[in-house]
């Protein structure tokens, strides 16, 4: 029963029982044992200087630190620093990819190539780069250099802000929150929240919005686009999800973290015929590459590599006793896996100087020698296969769920109108007619203080029942995948009538897997395309759309939520509020932000109340847009996007009455 309270994933429950039997402590156990500090948890602890830490307790208008900082200021500074850290994480990811793109363009990273020239040219257009008369590599070099310039430019604004609707750009300029350079916004946010600088809570939060926009419309969007250019823009692929994607008769190699470059090389190396033969010489039938966390999503959406799950699965993967090697890079890597690996034969391999770990092997990744290093790692995993102990093997015995993943912005556009007539018109029409009530971006992490996947799965189920199209990224997408929610059949069985008809017509699931956590930027570009298509206003703000991170834990999630709110999408987070200590800050985010950016940021722990608030926000947006009131099962007349054959078959009357 204890395991059922920790996770709704049957495979996780099975392996938690194994951990309990073997007296192995996991993050789930530590979350029970280590209670969060109630003061710091709510944002009321200031540790910005050595006069503290100061714990601000008591009445809000009386509580203050040694320096005199008020509770709203302290809470705002803590929140803003989380935004800065999250922006730094996603943007550093993009910087590495931009340097890889530059090396590829200059012929210095010969194991990579430009996989999507169409996307490269499209991105060049966003950046104002003329591609006429240029080779692919010449264009790629200019794009890479322009991207790198975005980190430290001293004048102007981020180039990608131009991808947002004009009205949204005007809001950012009016508020003075249009980001200039990515690094500048992170540095300024850290400066402004240092002791003795910015002493006004609302002004600090405006700075937090600007820093977050440098993530959403900067680092994350750049990271997504460069990955598409180098590794291919995702399109739907079939795969499987579960902790039981490990194979007892194969060498199991796990890639875990967030950066896709080395993972791409590991995909190639794991399919190498010589290494396959080498694995057989060690008694294995081959090499089984498995993904975990957001690196999993990167290779899933492009290659269909099966996923073992998200953040809270990493210890459980090792506890299966079948993992020969776990290759990690950056972000969301638990230090505990190093110690845990010593109880099994698993080798943990770190690959970047930014993230080393005790009890791990370090093999430094370098894009100039990517494939050679990948083969070295695969060979190490193969050599470890004979060390697997039969008595340690503990499969979860839960059949992996089928799934469809890989719904990029470009594919969603393509599936509604074809290669040359791609459009968001059918989606807009379905929303206007009430077949689709609205759209929800369901994203974010898992948190061991919440029953794993419980809120993700509850909201996904209930939203599609209410005709809400769900798009997912990150660990949230893993939750739906493991639960079997990412197949077209799911729409037939569980979606509301209107959403089901739309999904049947297009041939998609009611829950679309958009990729990793940096790929939340795809939601921004989709929202922009919906606004620009017409019929639903002229801005992202006001669309019947909501973003939810019900089980969040990372600073990256805070940055993501803030840039969505600043872009006009109302945001709801579960898992407790880091600003709960200050009623003033809560009021700023839930109320004053509506006046400034036409969206609010809410924290709500009850999943039923999250659902209720989400549907209320969607229906209110529909009412303000003056489109058809949503009524289950009743739809308005839709405009039909016809192909050329349908147009030729139709009879049209001219103003003079002639048929043509």
Overall description:
Helix content is 48%, strand content 10%. It has 660 residues and is of the alpha/beta class. The strands form four sheets. A six-stranded parallel sheet has the order 12-11-10-13-14-15, with helices on both faces. The protein has a five-stranded parallel sheet with strand order 5-4-6-7-8. A two-stranded antiparallel ribbon has the order 1-2. α25 (583-597) links the parallel β14 (571-573) and β15.
Features:
single chain; 660 residues; alpha/beta; 5-stranded parallel beta sheet; 27 helices; 15 strands; disordered C terminus
Biggest sheet strand line-up: 12-11-10-13-14-15
Task: List low-confidence stretches.
Answer: 638-660
- Beta-strand residue fraction: 5-15%
Q: Into which percent range does the helicity of residues fall?
A: 40-55%
In short:
This protein has 27 helices and 15 strands. It is an alpha/beta fold and 660 residues long.
Topology of helices and strands:
Elements: H1 2-6, H2 10-21, H3 27-33, H4 38-41, E1 45-46, E2 54-55, H5 71-105, H6 117-126, H7 136-152, H8 166-175, H9 182-192, H10 201-231, E3 237-241, E4 251-257, H11 260-270, H12 273-281, E5 287-292, H13 293-303, H14 314-319, E6 323-328, H15 336-341, E7 347-350, E8 361-362, H16 370-384, E9 401-405, H17 409-415, H18 425-433, E10 438-442, H19 454-465, E11 468-473, H20 474-482, H21 488-494, H22 497-506, E12 511-515, H23 520-533, E13 545-549, H24 555-566, E14 571-573, H25 583-597, E15 601-603, H26 607-625, H27 644-649
Helix pairs in contact: 5-7, 5-9, 5-10, 5-24, 6-7, 6-10, 9-10, 10-23, 10-24, 11-13, 11-16, 19-26, 21-22
């Amino acid at each position: 029963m204890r395991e059922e309270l920790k996770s709704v994933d049957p495979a996780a429950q099975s392996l938690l029982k194994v951990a309990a039997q073997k007296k192995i402590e996991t993050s789930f156990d530590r979350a029970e044992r280590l209670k969060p500090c109630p003061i710091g948890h709510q944002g009321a602890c200031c540790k910005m200087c050595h006069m503290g830490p100061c714990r601000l307790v008591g009445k809000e208008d009386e509580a203050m630190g040694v320096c005199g900082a008020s509770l709203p200021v302290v809470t705002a500074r803590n929140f803003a620093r989380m935004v800065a850290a999250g922006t730094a994480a996603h943007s550093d990811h993009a910087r590495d990819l931009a340097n890889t793109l530059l090396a590829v363009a200059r012929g210095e990273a010969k194991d990579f190539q430009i996989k999507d020239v169409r996307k490269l040219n499209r991105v060049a257009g966003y950046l104002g780069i003329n591609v006429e008369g240029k080779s692919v590599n010449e264009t790629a070099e200019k794009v890479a250099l322009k991207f790198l310039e975005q980190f430290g430019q001293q004048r102007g604004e981020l180039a990608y802000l131009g991808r947002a609707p004009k009205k949204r750009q005007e809001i950012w300029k009016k508020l003075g929150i249009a980001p200039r350079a990515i690094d500048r916004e992170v540095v300024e946010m850290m400066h402004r929240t240092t002791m003795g600088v910015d002493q006004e809570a609302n002004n600090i939060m405006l700075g937090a919005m600007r820093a977050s926009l440098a993530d959403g419309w900067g680092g994350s969007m750049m990271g997504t686009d460069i990955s598409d250019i180098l590794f291919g823009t995702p399109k739907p692929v079939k795969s499987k999800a579960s902790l039981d994607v490990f194979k007892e008769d194969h060498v199991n190699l796990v890639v875990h973290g967030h950066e896709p470059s080395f993972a791409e090389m590991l995909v190639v190396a794991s399919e190498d015929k010589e290494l396959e033969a080498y694995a057989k010489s060690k008694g294995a039938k081959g090499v089984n590459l498995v993904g975990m966390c957001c690196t999993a999503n990167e290779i899933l959406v492009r290659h269909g590599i099966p996923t073992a799950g998200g953040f809270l699965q990493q210890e459980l993967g090792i506890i299966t006793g079948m993992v020969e090697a776990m290759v990690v890079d950056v972000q969301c890597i638990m230090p505990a896996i190093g110690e845990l690996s010593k109880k099994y034969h698993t080798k943990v391999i770190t690959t970047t100087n930014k993230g080393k770990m005790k009890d791990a092997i370090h093999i430094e990744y370098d894009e100039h020698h990517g494939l050679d290093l990948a083969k070295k790692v695969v060979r190490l995993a193969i050599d470890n296969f004979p060390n697997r102990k039969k008595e340690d093997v503990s499969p979860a015995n839960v059949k992996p769920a089928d799934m469809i993943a890989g719904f990029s912005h470009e594919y969603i556009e393509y599936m509604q109108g074809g290669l040359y007539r791609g459009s968001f018109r059918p989606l807009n029409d379905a929303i206007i007619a009430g077949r689709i009530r609205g759209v929800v971006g369901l994203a974010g992490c898992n948190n061991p203080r919440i029953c794993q996947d419980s809120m993700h799965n509850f909201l996904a189920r209930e939203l599609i029942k209410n005709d809400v199209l769900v798009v997912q990224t990150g660990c949230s997408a893993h939750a739906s995948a493991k639960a079997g929610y990412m197949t077209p059949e799911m729409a037939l069985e569980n979606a509301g009538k209107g959403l089901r008809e739309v999904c049947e017509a297009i041939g998609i699931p009611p829950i679309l897997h958009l990729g990793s956590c940096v790929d939340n930027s795809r939601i921004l570009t989709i929202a922009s395309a919906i606004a620009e298509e017409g019929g639903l206003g002229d801005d992202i703000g006001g669309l019947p759309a909501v973003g939810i991170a019900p089980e969040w834990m990372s600073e990256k999630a805070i940055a993501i939520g803030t840039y969505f709110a600043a872009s006009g999408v109302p945001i709801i987070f579960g898992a407790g509020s880091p600003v709960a200590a200050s009623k003033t800050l809560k009021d700023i985010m839930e109320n004053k932000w509506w006046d400034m950016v036409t969206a609010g940021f809410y924290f709500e722990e009850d999943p039923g109340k999250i659902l209720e608030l989400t549907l209320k926000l969607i229906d209110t947006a529909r009412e303000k847009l003056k489109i058809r009131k949503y009524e289950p099962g009743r739809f308005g007349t839709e405009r039909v996007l016809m192909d050329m054959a349908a147009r030729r078959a139709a009879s049209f009357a001219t103003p003079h009455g002639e048929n043509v």
